[in-house]
Amino acid sequence: MSVLVYTESDNGKFKKNAFEAASYAYKLAEQLGTSVTAISINASDSEEIGNYGVEKILKVTNDKLSIFNAKAVATVIAQAVENEGANTIVVSSSTDTKYMASILAGLLKAGYCTNVVAPPLSTNPLVVKRTAFSNKGFAHTQFKTDINIIGVSSNAYGIFENKVSPKAENFEPNLTDSDFSVQSVNIDKVVGKATIADADIVVSGGRGLKGPENWGMIEELAEVLGAATACSKPVSDMGWRSHSEHVGQTGKPVASNLYIAIGISGAIQHLAGINASKVKVVINTDPEAPFFKAADYGIVGDAFEVVPELIEKLKEFKAQNA
Q1: Whole-model pTM over 0.85
Q2: What is residue 67's DSSP assignment?
Q3: 223 vs 65, 81, 218, 312, CA distance in Å?
Q4: In the CATH scheme, what is the homologous superfamily, with its name and number, of domain 201-320?
Q5: The domain 3-180: what is its CATH number?
Q6: How many CB atoms lie within 10 A of CB 247?
Q7: What's the rounded Cα separation, in Å, for the pair 221 and 191?
Q8: What would the pLDDT profile of 33-52 be if each residue is shown by its tens digit?
Q9: Phi and psi angles of residue 301, each rounded to the nearest 5 degrees, phi first
Q10: Angle at CA 166, nearest 5°, toward 8 and 29?
Q11: Beta carbons of 246 and 252 less than 8 angstroms apart
């Protein structure tokens, strides 16, 4: 009875969180003495997931699923669970998957635990460690259901290669019109840049930048670092930046390896959304800004002086180490 992992993809390519979920599933399968089966939807190179310990791939090709639909994807996975006789499902903790997995839990009458950060502490009973209180603490959670869904927190477990030659087979789920009763009518997507969800580094700006005309240095710093750009809620509310870049408790959660906040005071809602980031750097003129209490590193200074100098130093370092 294998561990089933749902591997997210976009435009035919696996997302970073698919590799992390597969890596976690492989470790879990080792603990359980079984193997990993992945379900892949419209991924053009589904065999790539075999690099992360997946021995079997259920390939789903369906044009109706080219745009993410939570209910339809939940139906697909539920049928795959039945097909494989799986009782443990591993998914990411992305926004899309959180919507989907709650529906899946209802379909399967399964237990569902989000934001899991480590391999199970016990497999009988199944006990996992997850973040709690907006990433300010941890909880050890025990499943008491026959079927269990584990949502792996982004950038928490890591990505580990365990190359195998997976067996791939086509899987054709039975989808009806009712599975598509709710549809997306518009998708606001960042194009041509690293996305907030997948980025290892995020450079974020706030009202301290004084206006959208000054955003060039944020984008330049992000380009030098290979980072995604983000912003605080007031910035997106004022229309300086797209809402797709708004991070925080009411925006997109961030769990990057490095989060750089420039001109952001650090309201509690913003901090709650970025607390899962491993290293937090703050640049602000106000030494009393709340963000400094949450930061690993802080610079009290004018962003219009600090950031250009930082960009130049980074460019020099990259040139010397090219």
Answers
A1: no
A2: S
A3: 32, 42, 9, 12
A4: TPP-binding domain (3.40.50.1220)
A5: 3.40.50.620
A6: 26
A7: 18
A8: 999 999 999 998 888 999 99
A9: 180, 170
A10: 75
A11: yes
